[in-house]
Amino acid sequence: MNNWKSEQVIIVGGGIGGLAAALALARAGIASQVVEQAAELKEIGAGIQLGPNAFWMFERLDLVAPISALAVFPDNLIMRDSITGEEVTRIPLGAAFRKRFRQPYALIHRADLHRVLLDACRASSLIGLDAGQKVVGVDDKSGGVAVTTESGKTYRGAALIGADGLWSTVRQIVVGDGKPKPAGHITYRAVLPTADVPQEYRWNDMAFWAGEKVHLVLYPLRTGELYNLVAVFHSNRYEEGWDSYGDPAELHERFAQTCAPVRMLLDKIESWRMWVLCDRPPIKDWSRGRITLLGDAAHPMLQYLAQGACMSIEDAVCLADKVVAAEGDYAAAFLAYQQARYLRTGRVQIMARVYGEFYHATGVAKELRNMMLGSRTADDAMAGMEWLYDVPKELMQEISPRARGEIAREASA
Ligand SMILES: Cc1cc2nc3c(=O)[nH]c(=O)nc-3n(C[C@H](O)[C@H](O)[C@H](O)COP(=O)(O)OP(=O)(O)OC[C@H]3O[C@@H](n4cnc5c(N)ncnc54)[C@H](O)[C@@H]3O)c2cc1C
Fold it and tell me: Is 11 within 8 Å of 297 (Cβ atoms)?
């Protein structure tokens, strides 16, 4: 092993992005130490959608089989009007979609995705995983990096990746741009056992009812054992906050004008968890010497394109590639990494806001949305997603011949 590879990289944050980074580095033979503030390494929350772009990364990380075993592969993405209940548009996700993007679209429980990453990290002798350590200080003045935690522990390494999410401490050291910006949108999330979902809504689709100033998402999880519900509405009541219990009365008030199926589904949930949605404007410079950022710490985005976690996994693979290419010159590698990523992630940040406007449109904007989306063919819809679901070619470069063979067979099927 090259010497530089054994000098560990410190990764602050053991969420999806931090674990993906540890794994991507380990797959390249590079040691890392993950430092997570929570008492236990785990994910809260409910479902997560995985675009075809994420599956290219799972190929790179050798995770396709464990992810596929836990994921649901939906038949369609469907948008309905939340007042009339009528379908506005759909993207079929079957053979034509898989042939076009050469990868599937999937739905998975966050905890399952995190567990797959964690198991893979635990299986690697190159990855150290410490929980219950909140990083409060960073020092990069002595040729390497050192982080100190609230409990007084110090970790030293060759470089540092801040994968510490929306409220990143490392970002304040590297960029120093204060708190993220609340979008004025609130999300309530819950999961429902399939037995509690009326038969006609037990679809194998990622479907949502859109507008006005609200939307409700319903899709299956865990091979159909559960249904994931995500209710979003506009409110300036909350300045900030994360993962607290929601107030069902406010939710029902906001959704009062929606069609009967939406209100019926909201009635099924007794306990919701609430997220106050925030993002930041895109930036192009999120590295300083041997320190860089990844995932939500670098480019937090609203969830309307369902891509925050997917982008963090793409970041991880790209970052490891750049470190290998720079043979351990971390400052050069981190500049190359942010250069490769900022336009793609910035585009997703901006377009996620635009999609939020479409989903919550009222008046003429809503009529226009229904007209424009309603007249699309499936081919038009897929063409509209190429910029996102086709990953940059350089991220595909390491795909194994075995995987390539499988993809070729599928594409010609
Ligand atoms: C409602 C909603 C729905 C979403 N749906 C999707 C979807 O369908 N598809 C998709 O791809 N994305 C989705 N996302 C986005 C996705 O959840 C995030 O982009 C992703 O989880 C970011 O991962 P991360 O590892 O960068 O950050 P996080 O998951 O926030 O992880 C950061 C970690 O760092 C730790 N940490 C923070 N500070 C410190 C510190 N000082 N010291 C040590 N540890 C620290 C935290 O405890 C946490 O474990 C959604 C987001 C929301 C809010």
Answer: no
| Average pLDDT of the segment spanning 95-104 | 96
Which residue in the block uniquely carries the two structure tokens 């030293």? Answer: 156
Residue 214's nearest CA partner among 311, 402, 356 is: 356
Q: What are phi and psi of 365, to 5 degrees?
A: -60, -40
Q: Cα–Cα distance between 274 and 277 in angstroms, integer?
A: 9
Q: What is the 3-state secondary structure (H, E, C) of 340-351?
A: HHHHHHHHHHHH
Beta bridge partners, 79, equal: 89, 208
Distance between CA atoms of 187 and 356, rounded to whole angstroms?
Answer: 12
The string of DSSP codes covering 352-382 is HHHHHHHHT--HHHHHHHHHHHHT--HHHHH
Using one digit for the tens of pLDDT, what is the confidence trace for 189-200? 999 999 999 999
Residue 294 alpha carbon, nearest atom of ligand 1: 26
Q: Is the pLDDT of residue 160 over 80?
A: yes
Q: Cα–Cα distance between 318 and 187 in angstroms, integer?
A: 30
Q: Name the least confident of 112-116, 192-196, 304-308, 401-405.
A: 401-405
pLDDT digits (tens, 9 = 90+) for 320-341: 999 999 999 999 999 999 999 9
| Ligand 1 pocket check for 108: Cβ under 6 Å | no
Give residue 276 CA to ligand 1 midpoint distance, Å: 13
